[in-house]
Fold this sequence. Notes:
This protein has one domain. The two termini are about 20 Å apart. It has a three-stranded antiparallel beta sheet with strand order 1-3-2. By secondary structure, it is of the alpha+beta class. The longest helix is centred in the first third of the chain and has 14 residues, at about 5-15. The chain is built from three helices and three strands, in the order H-E-E-H-E-H.
Amino acid sequence: xxxxxxxxxxxxxxxxxxxxxxxxxxxxxxxxxxxxxxxxxxxxxxxxxxxxxxxxxxxxxxxxxxxxxxxxxxxxxxxxxxxxxxxxxxxx
Length: 92
């Protein structure tokens, strides 16, 4: 996304066209619930581990997220976070 505010308009358009949207390089984890009220989401940030390991060096980087339309739940499809890699940069 190259930042939440830079990619917000495209993310809104994707949510109008698709039931599942995958994003990376976002940094406003707490703002994803404001994108579209018809979508739920799961997200991880690689910054959590970096910040916990001491002084941050270099530029901050974003995480990954999966957004899914709430109608999928009504259709019996359940979304569950199964795994994240050791650096929290991948959701499966």
